[in-house]
Amino acid sequence: MATYGYCRVSTKTQKIDRQVKNISQAYPDAILFQEAYTGTKIVGRKEFNRLLKIVKPGDTIVFDSVSRMSRNADEGTAQYFDLYGKGVNLVFLKEPYINTSTYDEQQADKIDLLGTDEDILLDAINRYLRRLAEKQIRIAFDQAQKEVDDLHVRTSEGIRAARDKGRVIGGAAHKSKTLNIKGKEEKKAEIKKKSKSFGGSMTDKDLIKVIGIANNTYYKYKREVAEELQAEQNRA
C-alpha cells in the first residue's frame, strides 16, 4: 500500500512549497505529484490523471485541502465516491472531517437490523445517516467551488468598473476605441461565464460559434480571462 500526495497551483508563478511542506510533514513517505493547472476541471490535469491510473485499492492520496482535488462541486463529489468505491483512502489535511476514514467510521455506526418488521424503520434511519455524511462531503466541495465563483464575480465587477472609468476618461475623442474595448470585454465576460474551463457548460468549439469571433481571437481572450482571474486571486 502506497501513500501519494497531490499538490496543485493555478499558475507556474505561484508557489507550491506550502502544500509540499504540509503533506511531507504529515506523511514523510508520501510520493508527491505536483503540477500547475488553472481551471476547475479534473480532465486537463496531467499529473492528477497519471496518479489516478496508478493508485490501487488500499493506497492513500493526501491533499492539502479539498480545493486541490477539485473546485467543481459535482465533479469533486463524484470523484471522491469513485475513489472511495475503489478502496482508495483520501486525506484532506485542512478538512479532516471528510477523510474517507471518517466516512468509514460514520458508516460503522449504523444500526444493526433485527430481522423484524422494525427493520424497515431502522434501514430508513441508516440511509438517512448515510445521506447526512454524504451531504457533509458535498458541502466541502460546494465551498471550494464557491471560492471560484466569488472570484469570477469580483473579477467581473473589476472589469465593469474599469470599463466605466474608461468611458469617462476617454471622452468623445476616444469614442471608437472605447466601443472596441467594450465589445472585447463583453465577449471576455461571456467566455468567463459560459466556458467549461471557468465553470460554465459550453465547449470552446460551441462558444466560438455563439460569440461569433475567430478562433485565434477567442483563445486570446480566453488566455486574458485566465490571467485576470489569477491576478485577482493573487490580490485576494
Shape descriptor: globular
- Mean pLDDT rating: 78
Strand content: 5-15%
Please outline the major beta sheet. 4 strands, parallel
Radius of gyration: 23 Å
Helix percent reads 55-70%
- Strand/helix succession: EHEHEHHEHHHHH
Structure annotation, total helices? 9
What are the low-pLDDT stretches, counting only 5+ consecutive residues below 50? Answer: 168-179
- Alpha-beta classification: alpha/beta
First-to-last CA distance: 39 Å
Q: Biggest sheet, strands in spatial order?
A: 2-1-3-4
Task: Give a count of the beta strands, DSSP E runs of length 2 or more.
Answer: 4
Provide key terms for this protein.
alpha/beta, 4-stranded parallel β-sheet, 9 helices
What does this structure look like?
This protein has a four-stranded parallel sheet, with helices on both faces. Helix 6 (119-170) crosses helix 9 (215-235). Helices cover 62% and strands 9% of the residues. It is globular and about 70 Å long. The chain has 236 residues and is an alpha/beta fold. The two termini are 39 Å apart. It has helices spanning 17-26, 46-54, 66-69, 73-85, 100-108, 119-170, 175-194, 204-211, 215-235; strands spanning 3-9, 31-36, 60-63, 89-92.
